[in-house]
Amino acid sequence: MANESKQPLLQVAGLNAWYDRSHVVQGLDFHVDAGEIVTLMGRNGAGKTTTLRTLMGLVGKRGGTARFDGREFLAQPAHTRYHMGLAYVPEERRIVPGLTVRENLQLGLLGRKGRHDLARAVDEIAETFPRLKERLDQEGTSLSGGEQQMLAIARAMVAKPRMILLDEPSEGIMPLLVQEMFQLFQRMRSQGTTLLLVEQNVELALGISDRAYIIDQGAIVHSGVASELLDDREIQERYCAV
Ligand SMILES: Nc1ncnc2c1ncn2[C@@H]1O[C@H](COP(=O)(O)OP(=O)(O)O)[C@@H](O)[C@H]1O
Ligand SMILES: [Mg+2]
To answer: Could you tell me the pTM of the whole model?
Structure first.
């Protein structure tokens, strides 16, 4: 048992990805332990989004290995992640037009095996997201940008994933909601969800993270404990300025 608990929840080794002939992710090694919040940082174009998309099976030309709870999944088709308990909230939130908040949340349970009490699942998740609870019957796309981001996160959480990959969740969102969102991330962790975060908001992200990796030109150039990176202005200015 002691050995099992030492195994990272997500273990990535030699991850590579290409768009046509452009080699965008160049041999990344990193891991995320169960119960951690880990941030990937780096300036625009460094390869952060491509790293997440590659892990999710959304970049066709990829190489390396990725294990979730010990099981290799990188070569598997994209939909297998959902069943393993690995969820993804992309930068573009993909709230489905014409559907209410409630219906968008129900989409988070599509494809699950067996019968689900959709109403109960939505009620449960709404308790964690008071802003959504008040707006369940409103059209999803009528929400503010920040509320839509909350909806995208809630929709990922409905299926109770073990780990969520989040791409720039604070982008374009007003500060008050960003604070709320980061508090939510801490609550999610305390309830046992593991998070891999991509964030440009370095101070906020490091403030709630256990560890971070810095990516530059498709490679990891630095990694460390979040609190130490938070004090390292030089590294932040060199690699994280937008
Ligand atoms: N769909 C795509 N096709 C071709 N090149 C892309 C595509 N998406 C991103 N890129 C390029 O890949 C590099 C990494 O991009 P990205 O992963 O989006 O970086 P980040 O998320 O760190 O800003 C950039 O040079 C970007 O221009
Ligand atoms: Mg990006």
So the answer is: 0.94
